[in-house]
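User: Run a structure prediction on this.
Assistant: Running it now.
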Amino acid sequence: MFCPKCGTENPDETKFCSKCGASLGAGAAPTGGAAQPEAESSTGMSANIAGLLCYVLTWLTGIIFVVIEKKSTFVKFHAWQSIMTFGVLTVALLILAWIPIVGWILSILIYILMVILWIVLMIQAGTGKMWKVPGAGNWAERQANK
């Protein structure tokens, strides 16, 4: 039985998680409506850590994890979301950089948005949440479930 809080695998007859102490009873359910990640990805890391690493180098690590992850839909979701979110924002930055003044100002605003999203998405993945970026999140979920 997997812990609904931290994802650690425990013997079926156990009432509390051996790692975090959460209740493993029949009534225990993930909190906040968030899908809980599998305990381990095909990379040998916990799914939370692999999900977090999908964002470290933005779309580049997203591509790496799409290629190497075979098992965890949680990790694949975060990899695809990283590719879509940061890929689109990077292209927007490159285009706006060629437009004098207005483009430069918008580039600064997009860069600030990228840094904020980068931090938020790493925290969400690291804590086991599948937080969806509007637009990119639904697309990433469909790609991860293929």
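The first helix runs from residue 47 to 53.
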